[in-house]
Amino acid sequence: MRNRSGTGLTRRALLGSGIGAAVGLVSRPATAAFPGKVRVGAINPSSGVLAFPGQACVRGIDLGAKFAKGKFGIDMDIVHADTQSRPENGRIAAENLIRQGCTILIGAWDSGATISALQAAEVAKVPMVVHIASATQVTSQGFTQVFRYYPTSLTVVRKSLLELKALLSSLKDAPTSAAVMHLNNTMGQSTAASIDQAWKEVDVPLKISQYIPYDEKAKDLSVELAKAKASGADALVSVTRVNDAIMIVRECVKQGWNPKMIFSPNSNGVQDKAYYDALGKYGDGAILSTFWYNPKAPDAAAILRQFASDYPNDWLDANSGCAFEAVQIVADAVSRAGSAESAAVHAALKATDMTPILMSSGRIKFDANGQNMGGDVTILQGQNGRPRVIAPQAVAEAGFQYPLAPFNSR
């Protein structure tokens, strides 16, 4: 089944989308056109519990392919695969895409699905650019075909905690202890372990009172939130996907818990449009660390305009932004390789040294394990129904609002 609109995926289909020219999207001349189309497989959780970020990634990839044709002269045939939010489907999706002639893969958002997909990529010797997936295992298990743009959970958490410490130092009546609620999946466990390690390294002036894991398929977090409240903590650190981020805030409202701060390192929630759509006035106040776009990048204004034109009911977030950037990494490698053949692209990816096209994430270069050595972190806070950049100071567009406004007085 073909997805001609580029706006989403059906539940159980592999979808292809031809990419047209990006007229007016690029401010600089494109390189010479690459002969023929490059077939790229894109793996994301476009249905199931992770559908919100997965569909955002689809939008970023399709926009990225349109942009890449104008900038690099690379015509991409994107073939989309849906993992249905099941980690084990990563390998199935990768194998199907490779059989369809995809010589490069992008994926798979969820760390578990990414590791699963990499197993297939490794066997077939097809390079895979990982747009989002932070578990340490992605680049620590000896995979030779992995090129991860996103930082490890430890890198994200460490940089996030440095920014958090700086914010705390400026506060009067700062919180003194925090409960940590986290997903009990690959990403959540890796991030919780990173919090435990980096908290000590950074010397965050907050005592962690308790770690509270929960299942990613949970439909009710009332018991877990009650534990966090009962711990006596006056701050909440949460490691979430968007669905459970929404559930946590709703439970705070129901149970009358008003922590002074909600902070989510390496998570979804505050950055997602679905979060504000679901929570309304309760969506403001929480803070989150993530990759975010650089509004001062040379092509940023044109890219944002094109995104708004293509997807008027959505906004460009970290998911779509990282997915967009992954496509540019692929296009840059194919352009330099002069070939879409997997081995040639693999060699070119190893030599990548480029400035991000859109994201505020530092120069892109991969180490011997396939890990991008850049990785600047941005701190967002929900303000007036949207995420606003509050740190680092050099890119901040708003001040930090503290303490969290009590939910029962909004």
TrEMBL record:
Residues 37-385 form the Leucine-binding protein domain. Keywords: Amino-acid transport, Signal, Transport. Pfam families: Peripla_BP_6 (PF13458). It comes from Bradyrhizobium ivorense. This is Leucine-binding protein domain-containing protein. InterPro entries: BCAA_transport, Leu-bd, Peripla_BP_I, TAT_signal. One of its GO terms (biological process) is amino acid transport. Residues 1-32 form the signal peptide. The keyword Signal applies. PROSITE patterns: TAT. The keyword Signal applies. PANTHER family: ABC TRANSPORTER SUBSTRATE-BINDING PROTEIN (PTHR30483:SF37), LEUCINE-SPECIFIC-BINDING PROTEIN (PTHR30483). Belongs to the leucine-binding protein family.
